[in-house]
Amino acid sequence: MPATPSAPRSSRTRSWWGWGYTDAHPDDAECAALGALLPGTLARPLPVPRIADLSIGRPAMTPPPSLTHLVTTDPSARAAHAMGKAYRDVIRALRARPGRIPDLVAHPTGDREVADLLDWAGEHDVAVIPFGGGSSVVGGVEYRGDAHRAVLSLDLTAMDRVLDIDTVSRSARIQAGALGPVLEEQLRPHGLTLRHFPQSFEFSTLGGWLATRAGGHYATVHTHIDDFVQSLRVITPAAAGTSWRLPASGAGPSPDRLFLGSEGALGVITEAWMRLQERPRHKASASIAFADFHRALDAVRAIAQSDLAPANCRLLDAGEALLSGASHDGSSVLVLGFESATGPVDDRLATAIDLARAHGGHADDRLATAIDLARTHGGHADEHPVDRDASAGSAVSAWRSAFLRMPYLRDGLARMGAVVETFETAATWDKIPALIEAVRTEVGAAALKITGHPATVNCRLTHVYPDGAAPYFTVAVAGRPGAEVEVWDDIKAVAGEVLHRHRATITHHHAVGRDHRAGYDLQRPEPFALALRAAKDALDPHRILNPGVLLD
Amino acid sequence: MPATPSAPRSSRTRSWWGWGYTDAHPDDAECAALGALLPGTLARPLPVPRIADLSIGRPAMTPPPSLTHLVTTDPSARAAHAMGKAYRDVIRALRARPGRIPDLVAHPTGDREVADLLDWAGEHDVAVIPFGGGSSVVGGVEYRGDAHRAVLSLDLTAMDRVLDIDTVSRSARIQAGALGPVLEEQLRPHGLTLRHFPQSFEFSTLGGWLATRAGGHYATVHTHIDDFVQSLRVITPAAAGTSWRLPASGAGPSPDRLFLGSEGALGVITEAWMRLQERPRHKASASIAFADFHRALDAVRAIAQSDLAPANCRLLDAGEALLSGASHDGSSVLVLGFESATGPVDDRLATAIDLARAHGGHADDRLATAIDLARTHGGHADEHPVDRDASAGSAVSAWRSAFLRMPYLRDGLARMGAVVETFETAATWDKIPALIEAVRTEVGAAALKITGHPATVNCRLTHVYPDGAAPYFTVAVAGRPGAEVEVWDDIKAVAGEVLHRHRATITHHHAVGRDHRAGYDLQRPEPFALALRAAKDALDPHRILNPGVLLD
Q1: SS3 state of residue B65
Q2: End-to-end Cα separation, chain B, in angstroms
Q3: What angle, 0 to 180 degrees and rounded to 10, lies between the N-to-C axes of helices B526-539 and A526-539?
Q4: How far apart are alpha carbons B487 and B523 in whole angstroms?
Q5: What is the distance in angstroms between the Cα of B39 and the nearest Cα belonging to chain A?
Q6: Chain A residues touching residue B342 (CB < 8 angstroms)
Q7: Facing B511 at nearest CB: one of A250, A427, A531
Q8: How many domains does chain A contain in total?
Q9: Please, are residues B179 and B203 in contact by the beta-carbon 8 Å criterion?
Q10: Is residue A536 part of a domain?
């Protein structure tokens, strides 16, 4: 079936230096109010940075005539492609010390152009940094060092179309440069959805999700995007190819799984056939308070080890619940959500609440909400990245609003000289309680020691499994003016050491990029390290693709 | 937690040439009765082959003194490790034309010994064929050609222990050489189960399942063993390593997924931490008859695209249903089963039956059986590989009995000179009806043309997905006496051509081995082919590991 004729684009202005849309940024007064919550921050916000204040310089190379129409050397475009959106990127912009500005930004519109750009780059020793929405928080889209003659940022967002839809097999062929809302809008007329809603949904692309094994909507079972991949098209300097559209296969090691998580180091993913779903018609959600975080962990484990498969199963510790407005009495809060296109989910929610109660949880019955969307909305589900439900004012909706607002608030605090960042991991259940305690204690102590200010270290579980969970930590502390990057790097080094000591992964879904290389190198088993290096040599013989991620 | 002290072993005798246990083989009279069903077969069965009738010869090399205690040159052991259990293996044994007999059979008891054997083999140009239960049906455990000085079969079944159990995270560290019943017996005292029940369950090992991405118990969601892997230990000639125990990770491409499906060509999997489950306490099953196979396909698709997640969802076409005794009136039969350790599954079964009825299915209500094992058996589930339920005499149980008996009957027919074999594939739903029709028609026509006898080509769906299904075909036809291997190879070549034309995978769960190389080479995308070759060169520089599978 042919797909929709054109991809919609937002008319709002993206920030070149901070998260998301500029019209959603906190203003100076809100920044000051945020800063007042954190002792030791600045009296007034750092000014919003301007590209004109950067020393961008002339590009080291210009493209050949045959590629000129694809490549820009415009300073604004180059600045907007210099970094991702980690705290350390935001503060580097605020301090006018950005990472290496790429010399060139390319916007290919098809596979042939991607291949041509790779050919030219390989011949001229030009580093190529694949770039989707640019929302990396691990240094995944910047260049470090000076081993190449020039740096080209390969922006794929002009390739943003849903090219084919197979409604029988519920799948679609989608170009890698489609941002979340862009692809969902094209699927909507067919009654289907990819239903992959990372926090960055509006500002990240399918290709970025695939290349980083992004974590999405589902808190259980299909947590990463990996499982929704039917086929990948990959262009490497050495060869291009497309895996067959298959629901499953036992023919050798999965060819797609080598490129999922390859972060642009092995090739450029230009399109994928993705598995879709019907929009859910039945939903039910509830929030459950726990006085004791450790009993809450037991409750979540019981739910994760059942076959209830909640779509949402996020446990917020007391600090996280307070910050998001989900609780004000020192309770931990479990946000539970079920959804289905097949039938009502009230029974599953009730069973999950029973499990939570057996571990000391208190459900606020007024807030447990079942929604039969087929009945109340004529089958139209509200498909906002984090679906709103009818329980306005509940802990569930408070958390959901805060979830989308958090990165903006982080940038507001950054303007107040605060160090505010998140990191995430995963470990088996036997290690989870001690791991969370160690991160809180040791990272908090390190932040105090490094800055002289008391730090906040909060934790939530974003995804849960029968055999473990993915804790997600938020750290906030006043920085040392002008040395915020160094302060954060020192704090993060302590965090990395704690994760390694507990054999908890250096990343559950933020990817490795450049910032997690030390932890990744320790974690990666040697046979796979040898295989990955060999694959890199074979596919990228000139070593131009995203140098420094995953491998040296 | 320490594991159980010793691994149980069966006292029954394994057949060196045919499927399973010798005491389960059809006798001459049963063989003759089977042969009478297939026109053109022999008047009396070929004799049971004897090792003494093979010309085995002296081993080309002997092991060094340091390894002598691990290695045998006993002719019986060598003959029993010469081939797997495909039809072409059985008929080669019956015709006293086995594949290359390995020179040596090693039985290492630990990782150090595996590494020592690989070191010695690498230094002396000895091919090493990892061998678990030896149930390969794709030529995965034999040697072809003469490029090496000698051939060593690396039998891992002495490494059959459950070494650690983590009941909190519901996982266990299990040695790769444990046969299905051996590992389940060790898990049973802890109330846990791996619940991976391929047809070969009794005669295949964990390591074999991992190396071939075996298909197991579940017809939906977790169909292959891949998803139950928490960590792998792999020994390669170049390096050994163990991935961290993680419930999930986004740190680079999955290191385990490169070795899952690597079929012994990249390294030897010696142990794995596996995700376990509670034994189910609630079960319900039903069989549903369809007059129209195409409407049955639609029904199965509707169930696969719901979130009901049946554990069993096997659709038998009319021929398959007749052979297994599930139906005698030309109906296709859908065998549905649900199970849970969390709560009753009757509602899920009822919803699935409703979906089937909406597509013309007729459920025999007397046979829809819900079993609350917690109530009726004090919590003890019968954990036979294909769980028996209370509906004795039903289509469900008829099919289940036939499922386990089928490979034995195949060998009985082989003794009658018949060509009887299976092959399986997977494709997206849009291709399924035409694919099944083309296989039936073209393979049936080819078999008739090649043999001069009418052929039976039956189909069942073994695993189903929201975006597609895995059809499994059985072919039976009288062979040309003495040329059965060639007949089958010619028929299989036609099957492979049909699969390729429909872009259906060359294998859903039987693996590639040597028999599927041509189809696999056509299917594998070029970037992955380059990466896999490079990984092979890096990990197995002397090219001693299972030469000929996956790669030349």
Answers
A1: helix
A2: 44
A3: 130
A4: 24
A5: 34
A6: 306-308, 351
A7: A250
A8: 1
A9: yes
A10: no
| Neighbour count for residue B130 (Cβ, 10 Å) | 27
CATH number of domain containing B295 = 3.30.70.3450
A79 pLDDT tier (thresholds 50, 70, 90): very high
Beta strand pairing call for A150-155 and A104-106? parallel
- Residue B262, both tokens: 């690597």
Given CB atoms, is A552 within the 8 Å cutoff of chain B? no
B466 and chain A in contact, CB less than 8 A: yes
Residues 257-296 of A with CB under 8 A from B: 257-263, 266-267, 275, 277-278
Phi, psi of A526 (to 5 degrees): -60, -40
Closest approach of A57 to chain B, Cα-based (Å): 34
Contact between residue B284 and residue B345 where contact means Cβ atoms under 8 Å apart: yes
CA–CA separation, A195 and B303 (whole Å): 20
Task: Give, in degrees to the nearest 5, the angle at Cα A34 between A33 and A36.
Answer: 65
> Which two structure tokens, joined as six digits, stand for B239?
């390096």
3-class state of residue A55 by DSSP: coil
In this prediction the pTM is 0.95
Contact check, Cβ <8 Å, B535/A539: no
Residues of A in contact with B534 (CB under 8 A): 531, 534-535, 537-538
Nearest one of A309, A301, A366 to A342, comparing CA atoms: A309
Residue B321 has phi, psi (to 5 degrees) of -65, -40
Closest to B217 in 3D by CA, of B239, B245, B195, B185: B195
Which residue range forms the structural domain that includes residue A349? 282-382
Decide if B239 and A527 are in contact by the 8 Å CB cutoff: yes
CB atoms within 10 A of CB B1: 9
Report if residue B523 sits inside a domain.
Answer: no
- Lookup: tokens for A344: 């009502």
pLDDT band at residue A140 under the 50/70/90 scheme: very high
Chain B's closest residue to A469, CA to CA, is B247
Segment among A232-236, B318-322, B448-452 with least mean pLDDT = B318-322
**DSSP classification of residue A2:** B
Tokens of B420: 């009887």
- The answer to whether residues B251 and A524 touch, using CB atoms and an 8 Å cutoff, is yes
d(CA B293, CA A258): 38
Residue pLDDT, tens place only, B112-123: 999 999 999 999
Instruction: Read off φ and ψ for residue B457, nearest 5 degrees.
Output: -130, 110
Nearest to A248 among B506, B508, B532 (CB): B508
Asked if B471 is an interface residue toward chain A (Cβ–Cβ < 8 A), one would say: no
- What's the whole-number average pLDDT of chain A? 93
Say if residues B149 and B166 touch (Cβ distance below 8 Å): no
Residue of A170, A249, A340 lying closest to B466 (CB–CB): A170
Residue A337 included in any domain = yes
Q: Does residue A137 sit at the B interface (CB-CB below 8 Å)?
A: no
Computed on alpha carbons and rounded to an integer, the radius of gyration of chain A in Å comes to 23
* The dihedral sign for the CA sequence A314, A315, A319, A322: positive
B252 contacts A260? CB cut-off 8 A:
no
CA–centroid distance for A544 within its chain:
25
Tell me the shortest Cα–Cα distance from B60 to chain A, in angstroms.
31
Six token digits for residue B42: 């022999």
Q: Is B458 helix (H, G, I), strand (E, B) or coil?
A: strand
Nearest to B235 by CA among A525, A487, A428: A525
Q: What is the pLDDT of residues B5-36, one digit of tens each?
A: 555 667 899 999 999 999 999 999 999 999 99
Q: What is the dihedral of CA B43, B49, B53, B55, to 10 degrees?
A: 110
Place of tokens 């809603």: A197
A104 within some domain: no
User: Strand, coil or helix: what is B320?
Assistant: helix
Q: B466: which chain A residues are within 8 Å (Cβ-Cβ)?
A: 170, 247, 275, 277
Q: What is the dihedral of CA A225, A231, A235, A240, to 10 degrees?
A: 160
